[in-house]
Design a protein that fits this description.
CBS domain Like; Hsp33 domain; 6-stranded antiparallel β-sheet; 2 domains; 318 residues
Length: 318
């Protein structure tokens, strides 16, 4: 089963986590055509898997009652890549491919061909107060001098340092069976003096260098205990109980008939009735899980009569 392991370095202001998405990742791929001949091209599959692993790691590292969404809007053959993680680690992910993808395409070729691609991190509270909007941070897919970044981990490390002032190290990998990631973060506000801060910087740089030495194949094939032992055998780690099964990462889609009703309500009666007149029904397919919801004229009439739907009160993804 998919699993998430969190840990601390004893006597160092550094925390870490390792995620291995197995059954959850395979289900995401199956819902997007794996085994039917319509699956994502391999480079897109790798990028989506890395995004799913990164979103899970980032969601697990914050205390926040709401969802975290990682979204890349691209200017290449891949228009959109999205991964969303709920507070209970329910996960869903999707990608929109609009052009030909090269066999060895990296991040730049996929989503940043003209260097205008963007990565957005959105925190959406589960119980928003009136007037409260989701928090969103947006970063480019290039470095401070305009140089293209060809690894998702570099983009997210840059975001965490610039937007959250958190030194972060990410190692990500994915294939058609596993999406995995390792995260290290230097905890803020732990140092009492400048000399201590300098020493802790050196400690963080040392363990970050060890983490960065982890190879893609090792991350995809080794169990978590072996990974941590090989990387940090000279360190003392405080390991927390692994999150697996219902407590751990798993595929879960938040779509449903009620949410689609809200979306139709948001279109307005004239637009909804126009679609009905043209097609005889309104059919909406979830881009994350493939579930289709169908609404006939009676269903739509109930929505606008207040019997089958309510005005949308939260942003939705379909």
């Amino acid at each position: 089963m998919s699993e998430l392991h969190k840990f601390l370095f004893q006597d160092l202001p550094v925390r870490g986590a390792v995620v291995r998405l197995t059954d959850a990742w395979v289900e995401i791929l199956q819902r997007h055509g794996l085994g039917t001949g319509q699956a994502y091209p391999e480079p897109v599959q790798r990028l989506l898997g890395e995004l799913a692993a990164a979103a899970t790691l980032m969601r697990s590292s914050i205390k926040f009652n709401g969802s975290l969404t990682l979204q890349i809007v691209g200017d290449g053959p891949v228009k959109l890549v999205v991964a969303q993680v709920q507070p209970d680690l329910g996960l869903r992910a999707t990608a929109t491919v609009i052009g030909e993808v090269g066999a060895d395409a990296g991040l730049s070729a996929l989503v940043n061909a003209a260097n205008t691609g963007r990565c957005a991190i959105t925190l959406d509270p589960q119980s928003a107060l009136p007037g409260q909007n989701p928090y969103q941070g947006v970063v480019p897919l290039h470095g401070p001098r305009g140089e293209k970044l060809d690894r998702l981990s570099e983009v997210l490390e840059q975001y965490m340092l610039q937007s959250e002032q958190l030194e972060t190290t990410l190692v990500l990998a994915a294939d058609d069976k596993v999406a995995a990631g390792l995260l290290l973060q230097r905890l803020p506000g732990q140092d009492a003096t400048k000399s201590e801060s300098m020493g802790h910087n050196e400690d963080y740089n040392r363990v970050a260098t060890l983490a960065a030495s982890l190879k893609r194949d090792e991350l995809l094939t080794l169990d978590v205990a072996t990974i941590l032992r090989r990387l940090f055998w000279e360190e003392t780690l405080v390991l927390f109980e692994p999150l697996v099964g219902e407590a751990g990462p798993r595929f879960a889609c938040t779509c449903g008939r009620e949410r689609v009703s809200k979306m139709i309500f948001g279109l307005g009666a004239p637009e909804a009735n126009s679609i009905l007149a043209e097609r005889g029904k309104i059919e909406v397919a979830c881009e994350f899980c493939g579930t289709k919801e169908k609404f006939d004229a009676v269903d739509v009439a109930r929505i606008f009569a207040g019997q089958g739907g309510v005005p949308p009160s939260e942003p939705t993804l379909h």
